[in-house]
Amino acid sequence: MERIGIVGCGNLGLSLLKGLRKQYPNSSIIASRRNISELVSLQDDLTHFTTNNQELLDSCDYLIIALKPYTIISFLEEHRNFIDTKRHTIISVATGIRIQEIQTALQSTQISVYRGMPNTAADVQESMTALSVIVDPLNRKEQVSELFGAIGETVWIDEQLMESATILGACGIAYALRFIRAMIQGGIEVGFDAKTANKIVNQTVKGAAQLLIQNGLHPEEEIDKVTTPKGCTIVGLNEMEHSGFSSALIKGIVTSYQKIER
């Protein structure tokens, strides 16, 4: 893998960096941020942090743009003269910024531009990354797949679904963590200390996900295996549904989606 640049090494950018560093121990990675004082402990011979974005653009072949959505267009307009259409592949992980908007900012439709939506599980190489592309004159789709495959699973989608993928995959991390937190709190209420409840819940959620991934079944098929007649599982599930568990989650997903679409 050629040199990788991460523009905007915030929470997501840092998760990407850590995941890529594990997978590509011999590749050069350069990341930029306005204040890099908190990142210097991660610097080594092949990992470099800078406040100078021009330096990053000059040094890297793959440019992962992890800036806040409201700053990405102005960044591209300011630095378009330093982007080489014959060398650079741009991968935007900014929510709601379409490929056409990036092309307009760069004043070119003949530049390799991808959109990617990973999540912070990239840190532990368990991200779910949605990818899309319209035009790629450098023909680097395989390399981009490899890049994000290094930090988890990938799926190629139509760009029109990217906002939906953002909600399920990126925002979804927060939804899942909030569910896990509630499970832990319930565990404490029924008698466990926080550390033990945390361990039980984390492994239980991991196991539930692996059941679906490895067996390829619908969640209800696995639920049926543990909901015995008049048992404690079905009573708990029904109480959650009476309190609006599923409908609240669905409503939250739709509300998040509507926020992006505004």
TrEMBL record:
Pfam families, per database record: F420_oxidored (PF03807), P5CR_dimer (PF14748)
Ranges where the Pyrroline-5-carboxylate reductase dimerisation domain occurs: 159-260
Localization terms from the record: Cytoplasm
Annotated binding of NADPH, by residue: 53
Gene Ontology molecular function, alphabetical: pyrroline-5-carboxylate reductase activity
Catalysed transformations (reactions): L-proline + NADP(+) = (S)-1-pyrroline-5-carboxylate + NADPH + 2 H(+); L-proline + NAD(+) = (S)-1-pyrroline-5-carboxylate + NADH + 2 H(+)
Gene3D superfamilies: NAD(P)-binding Rossmann-like Domain, ProC C-terminal domain-like
Keyword Lipid metabolism: no
Coiled-coil spans in chain: none
GO cellular component entries: cytoplasm
Keywords assigned: Amino-acid biosynthesis, Cytoplasm, NADP, Oxidoreductase, Proline biosynthesis
The protein's annotated pathway: Amino-acid biosynthesis; L-proline biosynthesis; L-proline from L-glutamate 5-semialdehyde: step 1/1
Gene Ontology biological process terms, A to Z: L-proline biosynthetic process
Record bears the keyword Oxidoreductase: yes
Family: Belongs to the pyrroline-5-carboxylate reductase family.
Function: Catalyzes the reduction of 1-pyrroline-5-carboxylate (PCA) to L-proline.
Protein name: Pyrroline-5-carboxylate reductase
Taxon lineage: Bacteria, Pseudomonadati, Bacteroidota, Flavobacteriia, Flavobacteriales
Gene behind this protein: proC
